[in-house]
Amino acid sequence: MSEQSPRTSSVIPTLTCIGVLVIALVAVFFVGARVDHHDRPKPTNKSSAVTNASVNLGVVTSATASASATPDQLSFAAAVASTRSSTAAALTETNRVAAAISAAAVKAGVASKDFRTTGVSVEPAYSYTDSGQHLVGYRAALRDTIMVRSIDKAGATLGAVASAGGNAVRISNVTTSFSNRNGLIAEARTAAVKKSKLAAEALAGAAGRRVGTLVYVEEDPQDQGTGYYPQKDSLDLSAASGSFAGTTTPISPGSKSVSVTVQVRWSLK
What we know:
Layout: H1 6-39, H2 45-55, E1 59-69, E2 73-84, H3 87-107, E3 115-129, E4 132-148, H4 154-165, E5 169-177, H5 181-206, E6 211-219, H6 223-226, E7 256-268
């Protein structure tokens, strides 16, 4: 009978240890998987409700509504320019005419807070001929925007300003507007939401559903520049500023409207 070598004798215990270790690891894996399965929370009805709520998006409608009224105030620009041999002389003359215009407007009923200077300039004045450019003096200009709060006084104010400024004044950008603009916007906004709901009810009815509560409402930001503000009607009176001096200029404000556009999401029943 042959005798085992020392090398073979040492290998057998090693393999036995490895086998025991593998069996232990497998057992631990299955036990852990079973425990994890039992400890894992089951889906609840609450999770299902959230999922179902997110699917029910309701109906979204948009609508535009307007509110109209007669403008009750008017603004205009009065520009004065003078050309003299020096900048000081040009400024002096321009300031004199501008002061006369302001005094005439105040006398016609314009409050001092309703004057706003929108431009001042002093620059060389040139003439141009075939021989080139020639300095003829210096030009000083001043531009004020004047707000007349009562449109009934607008015609008389325009006449008074033209009379005080004479041929040195240019009147332009005559614009009518509303003093109660916010009230008109609120009226248009309410009408827009009502129109949106009517459209939502029609869509829901066609689908066999009913409109529920308002989920959110959004106002179109584009309307802030075009719908919220009355469209500006400008009339350039510069060529006629001298002809109606001392008279009352007829003003016909007509009717204007403001618009509001909304987008509304409604829930469905």
